[in-house]
Amino acid sequence: MRVKKGSNLTLYAGQYAGDDTIPATPTAFYLRHTTGESLEGTTAMIMSDEIIPGRSRAEPMQGNSSNGGSIPIELSALSYDRMLSAVMMANWVQDGSDAKIATLNSSTLAKKLWILKVFSESDYPVYQLFKKVMVDSIELTFAINAITKGTFSLIGVNDPLMETSNPVSGLSSLPSALTTKAFTSRSGSITIDGVELTYMKEAKISLKNNLAALYALFQAEAIETAEKLFDITGTITPYLKDEVIFNKAVNGTPITLGITVEDDAGNSYLFGFTNVKLTTHTGASANSVDEISPAYDFKAFGNDVVTITRTLASAKTVYTLTYNGNSQTTGTAPDPVTKNEEGALLYASTNSGSLAKTGFTFDGWNTAAAGTGTSYAVGDPVVIEGATTLYAKWTMV
Fold first, then answer.
1. Coil, strand or helix: which one is 36?
2. Terminus-to-terminus CA distance in the chain, angstroms?
3. Could you say which of 256, 277, 311 is where a domain stops?
């Protein structure tokens, strides 16, 4: 049996179903990362004050458990779309006229993930399953002559065991590694108030949900993670070419900010911010050899002030959520919901078409016509992993 090696560590993830369970046949995605991954569990130890004869104290006991940490990345097309949707708590919305374009606007859809850490030495693989993980934040750095790098910060509810068999039951296979190229500083642009700047030295952004693990009496693990404020901050560092940006900082003038990264395959991501104020600025001084490059911290304020726009070389596959009246006597099924990407989080429809069946009452929806699949009450969250049909569920009067 060999000692485990970090180079053989692989991360996979998937999304919880609407009822906070891992689906019976889960769909996994490969989670690319670089060195420095720090996702780990923790269990608090509670120290007793009881004195045992012989000048000893009583044994420590286990307290609450949770997990958290960070996953460092190099940003690349298609690799982190589900993670970005989780940090924005939103679904990707496909453009009505161009299927290659989709956007994320910050919302309140609490997407929960399971993350599987696999040390894959062939003679003795070891697995760890991190449960009910939410993405707290993403931080990205755009710098000269560098790959666009960043970090996802995560918070979950359990302290996972080391296991010698895959603890995600029903997961028949693990996905292959992705191969899209990382974005670099060679292709892209940065704009302020719609004007492209050719003299930006560095930009950093942070999107943070300020998540907290919530504990309850007589529960071993955190019961859930809850979002608080959505903070949007960062720093831009341009070379000093004229007085415009510096004076906007001094005067507290709101600006719009756009940062676009592109690859040579025709994929791009635009991080767009409105209602931005440059909250601090360094002095415009330099010694006899350094260029003058003031750094400006910024903060976006208000609602709907950040949008991530993705443009792909080829349109992604999207799916339809279809409703079926399931042999109703009268009424019509709700309209289908189209253009959903994997990981879209929707809510089960009301009986908007007044479905009725003689001798039965409407009792929500089920993924199987016979009612043997997963049931959804009206308003329950539904996670889309492919084309999905919900059948009216009928209960005999």
1. coil
2. 62
3. 311
User: Token pair for residue 163?
Assistant: 């296991």
Q: Is it the case that residue 284 has pLDDT exceeding 80?
A: no
Going through 108-181 in order, the beta strands assigned E by DSSP cover 113-119, 126-143, 149-156
Which three-class secondary structure state does DSSP give residue 281? strand
Model pLDDT for residues 118-161, shown as the tens digit of each residue: 998 767 889 999 999 999 999 999 999 999 999 999 999 999 99
Residues 15 and 132 in one domain: yes
Residue 51 lies in a domain: no
Over range 217-225, report the average pLDDT: 85
What range does the domain containing 359 cover? 319-396
Query: In angstroms, rounded to a whole number, what is the distance separating the alpha carbons of residues 332 and 303?
Result: 37
Q: What is the mean pLDDT of residues 231-253?
A: 93
Residues 264 and 330 in one domain: no
Domain membership flag for residue 170:
no
pTM beyond 0.90, yes or no? yes
Using alpha carbons, select from 253, 228, 223, 248 the residue that is nearest to residue 238: 248
Predicted confidence at residue 226, as pLDDT, reads 80
One domain for residues 291 and 380: no
